[in-house]
Amino acid sequence: MPTVAILGATGYTAVEVIKLLLGHPDVKITALTTRQEGSPRIGAVHPSLYGRLDLPVENLTPAQAAERAEFAFCALPHGASMAAVPDLLAGGCKVVDLSADYRLSDPAVYEEWYGLVHTDPTRLGTTVYGLPELWAERIAGKELVASPGCYTSTSILGLAPLLAGGFIEPTGIIIDAKSGVSGAGRTPKLTTLYPECNESISAYNVGRHRHTPEIEQVLSEACGHKVEVLFTPHLVPMDRGILCTMYGTLTREASEDDLLAAIREYYRGKPFIRVVEHLPATKDVAHTNFCDITVRKVRDRLIVLACTDNLIKGAAGVAVQNFNLMAGFPETRGLLP
Amino acid sequence: MPTVAILGATGYTAVEVIKLLLGHPDVKITALTTRQEGSPRIGAVHPSLYGRLDLPVENLTPAQAAERAEFAFCALPHGASMAAVPDLLAGGCKVVDLSADYRLSDPAVYEEWYGLVHTDPTRLGTTVYGLPELWAERIAGKELVASPGCYTSTSILGLAPLLAGGFIEPTGIIIDAKSGVSGAGRTPKLTTLYPECNESISAYNVGRHRHTPEIEQVLSEACGHKVEVLFTPHLVPMDRGILCTMYGTLTREASEDDLLAAIREYYRGKPFIRVVEHLPATKDVAHTNFCDITVRKVRDRLIVLACTDNLIKGAAGVAVQNFNLMAGFPETRGLLP
Amino acid sequence: MPTVAILGATGYTAVEVIKLLLGHPDVKITALTTRQEGSPRIGAVHPSLYGRLDLPVENLTPAQAAERAEFAFCALPHGASMAAVPDLLAGGCKVVDLSADYRLSDPAVYEEWYGLVHTDPTRLGTTVYGLPELWAERIAGKELVASPGCYTSTSILGLAPLLAGGFIEPTGIIIDAKSGVSGAGRTPKLTTLYPECNESISAYNVGRHRHTPEIEQVLSEACGHKVEVLFTPHLVPMDRGILCTMYGTLTREASEDDLLAAIREYYRGKPFIRVVEHLPATKDVAHTNFCDITVRKVRDRLIVLACTDNLIKGAAGVAVQNFNLMAGFPETRGLLP
Amino acid sequence: MPTVAILGATGYTAVEVIKLLLGHPDVKITALTTRQEGSPRIGAVHPSLYGRLDLPVENLTPAQAAERAEFAFCALPHGASMAAVPDLLAGGCKVVDLSADYRLSDPAVYEEWYGLVHTDPTRLGTTVYGLPELWAERIAGKELVASPGCYTSTSILGLAPLLAGGFIEPTGIIIDAKSGVSGAGRTPKLTTLYPECNESISAYNVGRHRHTPEIEQVLSEACGHKVEVLFTPHLVPMDRGILCTMYGTLTREASEDDLLAAIREYYRGKPFIRVVEHLPATKDVAHTNFCDITVRKVRDRLIVLACTDNLIKGAAGVAVQNFNLMAGFPETRGLLP
Q: What is the pTM (predicted TM-score) of this model?
């Protein structure tokens, strides 16, 4: 049974990874790390885990973590992850990296959007992007996988089939995305203080959110030509959930049924994609690894709607899905009964 | 001091009209109507009004209401309003109609979108559309004004200046709108039951919401040529507030500063429009008659963001604003100190 | 593998039963019933189940349901349940009843609090009350178990150890209970419409909530003498969760540590009770079958705090726990990894 | 027209004071202070004030503030207020202090509960406690008034009439209080981060909340003998509102009507108290200076329910009410039409 370490165990993503792995029959959690001091029990850090996992959260180096576990889930902020991953790999530990550090293929693009010089640039461009619905066979057996972001997954899963099928113009695509507040992380700040964001909706980072180049890079590769999107994220007063409302221009005549059929065909045999006829709500996928997708046609415009739980399919769930593929388990192990 | 009746006093819009009028120094509420029986006190229907207004909610005919008041605020559902307004006017009562019944200029368009034959068609096309920021002078002194809808006002206020200024292509405009739940009214139904819509966001009526023709009609008139929009409403888990994120294509080179300056110039002297540099949040305008607007430019695209309180600027507040203009009061009376 | 029917499949409790049973390795769902017509797929009634269970929701008689399944979960309203249970049992189907119909031991008390003459009175007083933490051995192998209510379970689990240990005066106990809105069911009504209960807290049914006699009956039996409580429920703007803040008078000197130790001892070996030192929050137990309990002492007063997820430990989870005991499975099957 | 300074202008209470004063016809805001640097416009600190007040928020000393204004609203944290108030008074500025620093009459009690030596102890015991419903005549014309806390006001307003009337035993009173999150202030911290407190309810500071001695002191004075309460605050997922559910023992036979009549008589002529028959909800008083109160009797127990808006009647509203009395204006000026 593989042993697993979780780096950055105090955050929202980590607690979801832990819960999923506690329900995974073939894995044993052996280390939890933080950069804070004090080694509290995990049940004191996340009271929902009280009595469910008897481990401290320790300030371990990546090398120490690698001694304790065969696999590591890196739930660290960007920048911190690229400082840890080389040591984990050097220690013989396979890594699912949940940060943005290994997702982009070009260090210059990383530097432009994240404002940091990449310290492990040779792994960019060679690290597999962990979106199993597109590239499960690439992920299988790998030592390092870059697990995708929440906005990114939801956008790509919605758009890839119709772009790959040539139904949508690859430029001029608008992604109007709405996210629950947990996506902003567990570090206290004014913008995510309850009385600030409750009972309110607003856009942020208009035209300059860091998931934009990631979406364009993956969609371009998925459909074989350059894709350009305008991405607008919004903060919605709810804990979890992402809805992407995506607007594109039809390239040729097609009915809604044609479009739904194309999406269904693209995802045939993919257990976590539900192509639905109704308009999906984030609540329908909350606490699951599902992505619900539908499409509407209005005149010559397509509206693709896709939603996920940002903490599960958008983070912890897809990470476990990637782990399963890396470790040789069925993709759904620990994620579906 | 003008006497005022409120028709349809049990709904969310009516309670806001009442609260605004209680703070209006020059008006006296003399009748409240409902189609339900029993004549409860208004404080029993809306506990927030307990002790603030000592009137029953009565099942009065429009003619009876007209005997009691010089002005009527019609907060009735569409269909019910066009059945009441002719009798109110015949009784000598001036009317601010908050329903959709008198907003469209073409009875055929009304029938197409509302599924009802209009029973007072001769007033369509001649009734003033009550958006004071565009047409205050038309509203002054009128006997009947069609007060606009919440999605409509927010969309139009955001887009009109840049369309009128020729900055945006008039077709291909996308309005991605997000509304709080009070916009769906006070009649219990599954979709707005707390556990259904809490902690969830979803789109509804994609491509076929009834505010679409109203937005197109008013914008077309405001800018002098045909405007076509794709309108997608979403339900957001909050009580009140509308945010419209609107996407258009620039027709010519212009900086964000140029665009903000054009919007400011268009609304010079309009007390309820705040053209802001930051990204507006619905919370900033909650419980006020303000509409906050800004614009961003990304490549050749414009993103206009506008928000209002759907119950105030989107319903009760603009209705009082119209009343002020009809009755000869300053536009801000009862709405701003 | 036992076959299972769920009666009343359109409600909030039923959907949780279904999700738990989908994760239960030893059970097969074979029938879903409703009193509505049309036989929609369950995925159309509850979109979160789309693609997860391919069954219609049918208007079956209890006898028809009994032909399809060896066990039935009755998630019907009170009154409806006692009309169905006799036929289910007559058809050879074992029943976990989630309604209040078989919880009280005295038909007169039932009639007084529910306003209905009990139509199956001989089963009152003989049906086992399904609170496994108190009476697991009674439940094992039974044909009918009355699964407890949400307020009831939480209150009893918090108070029983200290009452049984003689630490608290058995009268004068105050239970100030706070519940999420899903506890009020899925039938649209004004009080649970989103804009009515969002951003608000209020008490309801003060001094006359129907769970009062159930709490008193079970606590009296659990501690061997008559217990009297004052129960005040409140509606809290959240989907799920119950917190009971319970006030009693100490009968003798005891420290907080003594009290915590007494509670821990009482629940030794009970997998779903977590006796914690911190003040528990409903979020910590959301979507789980846990009940978190702690106690504080202020002068000669005890404050017991207990919380559960009203839909899981307060309804669907405890029902599955009872099913496990009835069917001979480990208590935790399908509820804990 | 009195000039007014607001100290601590970046917090939630201050923004409410500012909004109320903008609607007050007889006051002019002339200074806003903060201990932060940079002098931003108030509309940048609180976007809801954009365009409504053209003043910077400046790092002024109390003496500088006193030069700018005849009155000061001190919305500073405890500790900071007692450092500022002496200089304000020395500068000739009258002060409404919204902190806890001048509410208690005994410096030793202050030190015990707040962990600070009081640096202005001679004013304790002589400063008027600003609860106008009890002591309006004491407040009139004063130079310094200690405006009460939110939990405190709500508890006292509910209990004072029945304690003063001798209906309730003065000891053994339980106050189970529920508050919206804005009561915890605008400084980012983990406990009030949106994903922590949303969809959850929990108690905090059980048996040791700092409002306890304030409640006991004021109630004891109001009814003429020592009152002892057990106070348990809870955090509720909503922006604003406090509900206190208060349990006491009847001292003599009295009906609910008797009790309601006693409360009504106690508050005769008090414009902000609404004694209601229904169970009050915090939403009914949101954004108002009202306190809604009712009472229920169950056996020999009384349950008093009282609710306020913690930011208005519990902070900014009562402060303006106190200001009105100090300045010689009608109590309701700026608070009711």
A: 0.97
